[in-house]
Design brief:
By secondary structure, the chain is mainly alpha-helical. It has one domain. The protein contains five helices and three strands; from the N terminus they run H-H-H-H-H-E-E-E. The chain has a three-stranded antiparallel sheet, with helices on one face. The relative contact order is 0.16.
């Protein structure tokens, strides 16, 4: 793995830590965290309809736009539940990026904006 890739993964690991620390400061239940941390991965069910639909479904729940907007709205409105859900969602995305999982391309689940995942990842370049 190249140095640049390691730095990017470290950044995402730090985002994960920040999201978890901020979640802890909300006073929300850790049971909720455990229940929802993998919820965005339910979007992979879209792959039952093919790689294009799967990529759209997966990417819709693995981009930061919606959870960051939810975090902002929850914070501004004083809605602790929205803040907690947003931080869990952000933590999920950050964990995925720290592990090297990127947004999916319509060519297949293994093809991401960060490169190919799985066996022989060096054989693919987005």
């Amino acid at each position: 793995m190249k140095l640049f890739d390691r730095i990017i993964r470290l950044e995402w690991a730090l985002v994960t830590v920040a999201a978890v620390v901020f979640y802890g400061s909300t006073g929300a239940s850790w049971w909720l965290f455990g229940l929802l941390i993998l919820a965005p991965d339910l979007s992979m069910l879209g792959y039952l309809r093919g790689p294009r639909v799967g990529a759209i479904a997966y990417n819709a729940l693995h981009i930061l736009i919606v959870p960051v907007l939810l975090l902002l709205a929850g914070h501004l409105s004083g809605h602790g539940g929205a803040v907690a859900v947003a931080l869990i969602w952000i933590a999920h995305i950050a964990i995925d990026r720290a592990l090297g999982y990127g947004l999916k391309l319509s060519s297949g689940f293994q093809d991401t904006h960060l490169g190919r995942i799985g066996r022989n990842p060096e054989t693919f370049s987005p």
